[in-house]
Design a protein that fits this description.
The chain has 21 helices and no strands. By secondary structure, the chain is an all-alpha fold. The mean pLDDT is 85. α14 runs antiparallel to α15. The chain has one domain: MFS general substrate transporter like domains (Growth Hormone, Chain: A), CATH 1.20.1250.20. The chain is globular and about 70 Å long. The chain crosses the membrane at residues 28-48, 54-78, 90-115, 121-142, 163-181, 187-206, 248-268, 280-298, 310-329, 335-353, 374-395, 401-422. One of its GO terms (molecular function) is transmembrane transporter activity. It is a multi-pass membrane protein.
């Protein structure tokens, strides 16, 4: 059976994967930006310190990360059993509905503590669906990519993430330009959330135009023919715990570093320097464009020189970022601020671009969705969800960026250990991964047969 798609079909698959990913990450990062700029004052009571409201908003933001592993478990199970396509169609609708309803919520001044309670409930639903999105989106591409260029093709869904963030930033930027600050804080921020309904419909339609990967169809038919049920989270933890741990280690620094760059940067410049909101969003806009452009090229580099060297470069560079970025922020020079944020996202891309290919190559097809989703999403509870909360709390307590810099270094050391433990998988065949899994099955069954 031909397991890779033709170039034309592969481009369609990439477009479908990216379309949905843009939608879902537009909505997820819209929340992150709004939490930094709006939600602290709108959904929570005043305490006398603006950072208290920001921390409270980031705590609700963290709820989405807590829900993501649950979504990864549930949708990973569904994706391994029924298919990647129907799972991705379900997740995009759920995320879209939750985000649209966020734009309809009343504030603390209107309904008191019901406001943050409703926000938390919708945030949980949003995170739950997103937990099943990432694994399916990258596998839809990775499982149909040529072995020699999987890093390049599978990096395109990753490139959709800055596009989604870019759109969220652009909508908020335009809103902040055309509205008075009072109007933006009162109701203008809602427009960006309501626009998600239109984007969701477009993404859902595009995802109806693709089919499952032949390698998945073959694995599914084989499992049904043999009446096997050895797929899903339980099996991947039983058979590939090392793969899950390595995936978590890879994700740890990348996840922390990203949310420091795109979320805590806003808090730092806004609260420490009272930096102009429009200028701040413009800096992020430029950085997201560069991030989008470099991710596929770094994915291509991982096909040439290997997954491990590229990832190692990213982890080492990320460890250095805070020590020059925050001094650049303190200059309040707009070009230098743009440069610092942009460099941060370029460093991040060295870890982010090869990630889908590496994770897809860690697990066999019959449990790949569960393995990838579990490895990538569970760690977000202690990584991305806590990063802006801890960083903001340290800023409040120590009035310094130095604890944040040390935090990033420690995270990068964890990821470096995970990268070193990997075997190089550049150019490996996913069929070979399945064959190795089948051979492992046969060897484990031999003792019982002998008895």
């Amino acid at each position: 059976m031909e397991t890779t798609a033709s170039p034309r079909t592969l481009k369609t698959i990439v477009a479908a994967s990216m379309a949905g990913t843009v939608v879902e990450w537009y909505e997820f990062f819209l929340y992150a930006t709004a939490a930094s700029l709006v939600f602290g004052a709108f959904f929570f009571p005043a305490t006398g310190s603006p950072l208290d409201g920001v921390i409270a908003a980031f705590v609700t933001y963290a709820v989405g990360f807590i829900a993501r592993p649950l979504g990864g478990i549930v949708f990973g199970q569904i994706g391994d059993r029924l298919g990647r396509k129907p799972t991705l169609q379900a997740t995009i609708i759920i995320v879209g509905a939750a985000t649209f309803l966020m734009g309809c919520l009343p504030g603390f001044a209107s309904v008191g503590y019901w406001a943050p309670a409703l926000l938390v409930a919708l945030r949980f639903i949003q995170g739950f669906a997103l937990g099943g999105e990432w694994g399916g989106a990258v596998l839809l591409v990775a499982e149909q990519s040529p072995d020699r260029s999987r890093g390049f093709w599978a990096s395109w869904p990753q490139a959709a993430v800055p596009v989604g963030n870019l759109l969220a930033t652009l909508v908020l930027l335009v809103s902040s330009w055309v509205m008075a600050p009072e109007a933006f804080l009162s109701w203008g921020w809602r427009i960006a959330f309501w626009l998600s309904a239109v984007i969701v419909l477009v993404g859902f339609y595009i995802r109806t135009r693709v089919s499952e990967a032949p390698i998945f169809i073959e694995a599914k038919a084989q499992a049904e023919g043999e009446q096997r049920a050895d797929y899903g989270v339980g099996q991947v933890l039983k058979r590939y715990p090392g793969g899950v741990l390595k995936a978590m280690g890879l994700r740890f620094a990348e996840n922390i570093f990203y949310y420091i760059v795109v979320s805590f940067t806003i808090v730092y410049l806004k609260e420490v320097h009272n930096y102009d909101t429009a200028q701040l969003l413009l800096a992020l806009l430029v950085a997201h464009v560069v991030h989008f452009l470099v991710i596929p090229q770094i994915g291509r580099l991982s096909d040439r020189v290997g997954r491990k060297p590229v990832y190692l470069i990213g982890a080492v560079l990320a460890a250095t970022w805070a020590f020059f970025a925050f001094p650049l922020f303190d200059t309040l020079n707009p070009p230098l601020i743009v440069l610092a944020v942009t460099i941060g996202l370029v460093f991040h891309a060295f870890m982010y671009a090869p990630q889908p290919a590496i994770m897809a190559e860690l697990f066999p097809t019959r449990m790949r969705y569960s393995g990838v989703s579990l490895g990538s999403q569970v760690v977000s509870i202690v990584a991305g969800s806590l990063a802006p909360i801890l960083a903001t709390a340290w800023l409040k307590d120590y009035h310094s960026w130095l604890p944040v810099a040390v935090y990033i270094v420690i995270a990068c050391v964890v990821t470096l250990v995970a990268v070193v433990s990997l075997r190089e998988t550049k150019g490996i065949s996913l069929e070979a991964v399945d064959q190795a899994d089948a051979l492992r099955d046969a060897r484990s069954a031999t003792p019982s047969v002998a008895r």
